[in-house]
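Provenance and format

Records in this collection were gathered into a single text stream. Each protein contributes a sequence line and a token line. The two records reproduced below are adjacent in the stream.
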Amino acid sequence: MTYHSSVTSEATEHRHADHEIDPQFLNRWSPRSFKEKPVPDEALYRLFEAARWAPSGNNEQPWRYIIARTMEDRATFLSFIAPSNAAWCSKAPVLVLVASAMINSRGAESRSHAFDAGAAWGYLALEAGRQGLIAHAMGGFERDKARETLGVPADYALHAVVAIGYRGEREALPEALQAREQPSSRKPLAELLHEGRFGASISNP
């Protein structure tokens, strides 16, 4: 199992935190190059175990995952994934559709299902990094086709497809994607924070 107690040299080259945080947050990013190497069940299930413990409104835990690991199932997923994403994620040994229940256990409309599913994805992604795996979420897929093909009920929202596996070489990607195979930076904290009301800047974030 891989665990970095410091920021990797690759992350250091492209990322800088203005305030001290755990290295896992800087080390996690979304590569596109995958090795065609299976992910053991135990390693894969740890990701979903981490996601299981994410917070959710009223502890509803609305997230659901459909996992594709066989060649047949992955081919089915590729039928509704956008070609620009299929060009690189076709090598990933695991593809996962992320959905969430729009109706809560009381039969009412859930106002937090998407927010909660996003929190669970964050837990999953961090656990993947801890284990030396990569997890890349993509929104580029045909939702209606995915719903019909996989038999997802109408009261579940479809959010993303996540490719999971071991990181491959940059050179294995199509040439157009190789330059993008590096950690991205982030907007300044001052651009993200508002104090008191929207648009009011915060001093010295």
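Adjacent record:
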Amino acid sequence: MLLDFFPSRQLTIYLAKMFAVRIIAVLAMLVMVLLMLDLLSRTGDILAVPGNGQDDLLTYASLRAPQLVQRFLPYSVLLATIITLAGLNQNSEVTAMKAAGLSAHQILAPLLLTALIVSAFTFVFNERVVTRATATLKAWQDVEYGQVPDDPGTRFNVYFNDGNDVLMARTLSGTGEDTVLTGVTFYERDDSDMIARQVTGSRATFAAPGWLVEDAEVFTVATTRTQMAEEPLLVAPGTTLDQVGLRRVDPDAETLGELADSIDALKAAGRRTAELEGRWWHKISGPLSAVLMPLLGAVAGFGLARSGNLFIRAVLGMALGFAYFVVENAALAMGSFGGYPPLLAAWAPFFLFFLVGETVLIRTEE
């Protein structure tokens, strides 16, 4: 019987249903409260744009809510674990199940199964919903909640290096030789890295090589004079299409496959990708954190409730769960700086706290 983790079908359904209801309730409470607080801080910026109204506030809420669900679903599983097991312990249901011959792992099995389903849902939800919502919200925030360009490939606030010189643009649209920059500023620097000339223009097109700036206004630092160019002015002749193709990657806005392609492109260009590789692995290990929560919070469900230590056990379970998230974020940060390999940074906290949870559970029960 000890090797049968689901000895009772009715008990499995009872525990899994109780646990799932509490996860949903805690998650709804957290998301609603945090979304309202976020809206209070963003409403002024959104409504400051002419033409924006209540519909835009609802749009922001619909784009922000998936991000909050992604971030706080593991916390919801942890809190639901503590609430469920503390209630079962308080009502002596854990004692009754153990008297019937069930081990701690058999009691936790329905919760772990539910958490595994939550992890699978989280992964699919992140890939199909959160990435798209994040990309859309980021594009909207880049234009300060104004009109988002129709071209989904439009990039904002881009810059390219041409030796010591720097070319900046407010937006970049199009691909290949049809690439167009708007809101262009070019800084030409001398050998001492001081700006010698500044060129601004409303629009620039790729000239293979360089960029042709239209309506160019040239400011010369040495003479402090500004003059308009009579024809399109060629700048940044050392810029290549490979530089244009590279972009700043937001791992939260890309799916697993898209992020893998971005990492390969950056590697081919000689860029450092340790942080992105760690985030790629975290897209798999992150959702699985929900499976750890019943194990880390299980300390609240075992031990005598009449001993007066139930509250202390609940706090200990919560502390173990939050410690996992602290260590996980620290490991990812160390991985981004090259302190840990990306694979180790993403997976080490998971296996470490799995062993910690198992140790605490066995010592608490036995």
